[in-house]
Amino acid sequence: MTRSAKPSTSLDVNARMSRQRRRDTTPEVELRKKLHHLGLRFRVNFPVPGLSRRTIDIAFTRKKIAVFVDGCFWHVCPQHGTWPATNEEWWRTKLLGNAKRDRETDDLLVGLGWHVLRVWEHENVEVAVQRVLDALQAEPHLQR
Ligand SMILES: [Zn+2]
């Protein structure tokens, strides 16, 4: 019996991993780049006031606008959120915990007078840019 050709799995895994890496970072980086190109200035990974371990992905501190770019898996997107079949119970607790913390963070920020904008990683970046611009326009009390 001849040994079969080298399985293609390693190639598949590599391709999958590089896609995964891109998915993990690109939506947020892309949004930041576009906002920056529009001349907007903001803080990245700005600590949530009073919750030092949580950060705002993109923070317009003077206008108090907090933008979060949420991954579909980790933040349980209603369209793409999935429950892994292995260790289902553990994942469910973990992911629902993430979603619960997101809501707590939102409530805390809103209580402090922030406007919270959550962008899903699946959203079109141009649409996301427009949502940020709209939020900035809607907060006229402070000039940039
Ligand atoms: Zn999604």
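^ zinc ion complex. The mean pLDDT is 85. The helical segments are 9-37, 88-111, 125-137.
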